[in-house]
Predict the structure.
Amino acid sequence: MLEMRGIDKTFDGKAVLSSVSLALSAGEFFSILGPSGCGKSTLLRILAGFDHPDRGEVYLNGASVTKTPPHARPVNMVFQRYALFPHMDVAENVAFSLRLGKVARPERLRRVEEALALVAMEGFAGRRIDTLSGGEQQRVALARALINRPKVLLLDEPLSALDLKIRVRMQAELRSLQRRLGMTFVFVTHDQSEALTMSDRIAVMNRGRVEQVGSPQDVYERPDTAFVASFLGAMNRLRGHFAGPASGKSTHGWVDLGEGRRFMARLPRLQQNLPIGREVQVQVRPEKVQLAKIKELAPASAAPNVHLNEFTCTLSDIFYRGATVDISGLFQAQTSLVTATLLNADRVATGLCVGDLVKFGFCADDAWILSSEDSHEA
Amino acid sequence: MRKRDEKPRPAPHIAAKIITVGAFSLLLIPLLAVVIYSFFAPVSAAGGLVWRPSLMWYERLFQDQLLGQTLILSLQVAAMTSVLATLLGVTGAMALERAQFPGRRFLASLTVVPLVMPELVMGLASVIWFAFLGVRLGVHTIVMAHVTFALSYVVITVRARLADFDTSLEEAAADLGATPGQVFRTVTLPLIAPAIVAGAMMAFTLSFDDFLISFFTAGAGSDTLPMRLYSMIRFGLNREIYALSSLLIFVTAIGMGVSYKLRVGRKI
């Protein structure tokens, strides 16, 4: 229902967005994720109508709104700093669009009450804006943007100014609000865990381009590019050279890590044409790495048809993280570092110490091969 | 309004205190003396003339028809100056702060010229310009000359307010369906109103006080209050002048006080 086609935008000769195309379906919680300066906020401002693309079109329900000014677009926005009007009280802020639309007073009062109830802010109608906490201001901003039931709600890092505790609670509330209203939310954030928790789909952006669009599982577990892989979550990177596809499976390939060691990993769809000998990285999430004291192989290796990459490491660091523990080991003549994230209870059971010789392993399906050439931006 | 948490500051040195008190005394005692003297009048008593508290000079002042006329004229000039300078100043400030056009920075720097230019030069230049254009001197020429310098104060106050204005407020209003005109009326104007009123008050007071520029640009029969004061002094100092000066001090202090309060009082 909301579609962007080939959006280009430059500011002072610098390309901020390059041929961005995205299509959103109705009722979707869609996140645009990327580091600061990746163009995600500009993209949102183009959707709101504050900025205009140099090239490309924005379609809403099939009709182009590229040239429609912000006040005539059936979309509303929640601003990063809320942008509540300081000279109006809570009710006047929420009723702002209704007063412009000449909605009669009784109707206005009813709808303001309804909107405040939606964000659990009943009883705040007469309060001055500067007497509200950040979380309360956030709710008022949300009520103000939702009161006209826009087709699309744009949210520009709306939680980034909140304390961690309130932020986590607001994440859950935003998500349930969106489900209840069945509205399309476009949520801009630089916080990968926020995007993973809340979204139906995520577009990962870098340097003005969309690197990957997909479900949280897609982008986290099957990243298309080195940037996506490194931006979301922690990552082990093992350097080597591409040694060709695995026999019988074009979806997997071999990587030569030297010292006669070869690892098998998945080949993402954008990496299918790698030439043999190309410098590549085997990437695997720390929580997918298993380990066992030497001579006690990981039980997963027993499963048929699953290739387990195994190697022996010297434990170099153990980082306590509360519920989990990160265990790092060195291998390949002490040049490569691999980190495994384990539940803390497991670690205690195994009783590992720095300096121990330990067997690490990960399944070929949990790792992937990415060309080192496009990982410099990671 | 909450006070921002202020750091405790060290107490000033004793010498600094003495110098400060001395400097302010030097500045303010003459003004105070004028005000105090204006409230005393001689009364004949047993031992000759005795000075007693009295409003006699003020009574005389208000009976003086000519003076009444000049007061009304001064108020009219100040009011017109204030209105014109505010209209031009607010639109000018909007243009300088919001619009993008060639020569914007140069124009912005021109707005301070009247503040640094000697008043004598301003007055002289105005009268020469009016003569060149063949404009007859009168009340209108005083107003025009006053607007040229009062304008600067309005532009500077309003621009300062616009500069720290959060433009996302205007975007939010537009996003909620306000047309550009509605955005200005419902959001921009109410939020810069204190600065506009402050600028208007300042323009009013500066015009009401002004002698030099009025002196150059006034025609026959368009004497303002400060001009009347000046001509009274030429016939010798009397206590009526003290009373008149006190009134001028009073009006100025109120105007400037309100203006200051509005400029610093409210933050967005």
